[in-house]
Amino acid sequence: MPARDQPPPKYLSQAVAGAFRDATEKTLLSRVRAEPIPRHVAIIMDGNRRFAVGHGLLVEEGHLRGKDKLEELLDWCLEIGIRILTVYALSTENLGRSEEELRTLMALFRESFEKIAVDERVHRYRIRVKTIGNLSMLPPEVQEAIRKAEAATEAYDDYRYNIAIAYGGREEIVEAIRAIARDVAAGRISPEAIDSGTVSGRLYTADMPDPDLVFRTSGEERISNFLLWQSAYAELYFADVMWPGLTKIDFLRAIRSFQTRQRRLGR
Length: 267
What we know:
By secondary structure, the chain is of the alpha/beta class.
């Protein structure tokens, strides 16, 4: 017989850890479902490159793992009942990265949008897909894939799935100001009539509510030019895990944190 102080067999330790993880996930999911669900969750998917470096992988593999994690996240949102999901996929600043990395990213974007157009899950749940950002900055083949995905889902409205790509929050607000200025110059609106609703109505997200929760991975505690106007009263949650390493438990904990907060909305 083995000595009492010997550690348990490795397979047994893994089995116990897996059972504990499953039990924790089940408990968290039950608690999340018992409370009001945030209607709109916005996520800053940060940490692909650092995840790759930390695991001895190429940067391209980090982005691929990040893409796969986003597929998982969509399933989690559907299971929980989150109706609107907005993810920060690529900022305008990110477009300054190396040509090799951008080629990888653009190929992944094209592939993802082409898949969305025919994804059985998207059509079964009637998910409307929308891309926000300056799409003119993207390669033509990516723009075409985006058009196909949006056209294939434009009649749906049960769920909303927004991808911020070539996006910058300040640029979005500047564009809204320009649109308002054109309306003032044309006599369609007076300066005195401009209010917060006027600005909101000219943003990329004009047809949807502001996010209830903004969630960022990687341990960084900032929103990095993401939905600046829309996040004025959002709850913020920062997870110390790289995006590809995010687990369902991590995500459920973020939702539970939101549910336990008292939202005053400025009052």
